Amino acid sequence: MSFPRLVIPTGLALRGLVAFALGSVAMPAFAADPELTVFDWAGFEEPSIFQGYIDKNGQSPTFAFYGDDDEAYQKLASGFKADVAHPCSQMVSKYRDAGLIEPWDTSKIPAFATLDPKFLNSPVFKDDKGVWYIPTDWGATAIAYNTEKVPAEDVASLNVFIDPKYEGRTSLPDSADDVWALAYLATGVTNWDNITDEQFTAAADWLRKAHANVSSYWADPAEMAQLMASGAVDVAWSWNDGPTYLKKDNFPVGFKRDTKEGWSSFFCGFVNLKDGPGKEEKAYDFINAWLAPSAGVALLDTIGYGHTSSEAMKQITEEQKVEAGINAIDAPVLDQTPNQPEMRERQLAEFEKIKSGF
């Protein structure tokens, strides 16, 4: 593929591209404190989000990066060692079933009580054996588009992704969870807890039509931002971070959640990995820094996500929420909460077939 011009998003986005390349082999990048290794999404190494850890320990943790949840799980299951990891909610059951994680001691996390209870409303996260998951951040998956090239009426529906007008001009995430959330929404499903065979087939058929328009599947938000900034694509199914990077570079990007069919929400957080190579108390320093009220503004400014702590969210104005696309809106939403593991594996397998042209 040749681009008309190559525009690399600056700042955090550029670091995200470097981190993605390193993450493909799960190598530590920006090595710092050797006593805590954080296995994370590229971009979350921004110091302002966990400034309290630096203030206490004098440096950032050592970070290793990955591009998607399934990649991270496979690397950890294959023996890669880290102290904490940052999966999204639907992955936590896999970590538990594989025996890769242990409960957090919430008595060592003073701000645990400030977490919005809705983010812990699952026995996968919290049961009589303990708290297995500390939710920290949440965001939206919706339509990002070039406002100078794409009329507003074209993105009023998710069917823009199957519109022949945009053949070769769209990008989807290389993430089974996100593309199936898109396909279910587009075919009238807003809850994926009990998907029928008919709903699955309808969504798969729609995804095959969408695949025909795809120029590239993005593996990292910075990659999505690069594709749009370069002019390679005009419409993408995107997380908040991509438009945040583009806006910082003064690119004309819109983030459309209020389509006729709606948008998808997700949340992510940290798990305590068994037999981590670092110091356990530093894992708690890291979590406590993440849950500080100041982390809410830092998270929004750098990545565009909302925070799970009610105290952190109090620091964010309504205007800032609207700008980032995390404000309340009147539109259907599919929450990417933990769904049936068997269905998730079926979706993953079907997505691989679709990407291969089958």
Tally of helical runs: 13
CATH architecture field of the largest domain: 3-Layer(aba) Sandwich
CATH C-level class of the largest domain is Alpha Beta
Tell me the span between the first and last alpha carbons.
Answer: 22 Å
CATH superfamily of the largest domain: Periplasmic binding protein-like II
How large, in whole angstroms, is the Cα Rg?
A: 19 Å
The CATH topology of the largest domain turns out to be D-Maltodextrin-Binding Protein, domain 2
Helix content: 25-40%
Please provide the count of β strands: 15
Q: Round the mean pLDDT to the nearest integer and report it.
A: 91
Give the helices and strands as they follow along the chain: HEEHEHEHEEEEEHHEHEHEEHHEHHEH
Bin the strand percentage: 15-25%
Structural domains: how many: 2
Main beta sheet:
13 strands, mixed
Low-confidence stretches: 1-28
Which class do the helix and strand fractions yield?
alpha/beta
- Global morphology: globular
Keywords: Signal
Organism: Paracoccus suum
Pfam families: SBP_bac_6 (PF13343)
Signal peptide: 1-31
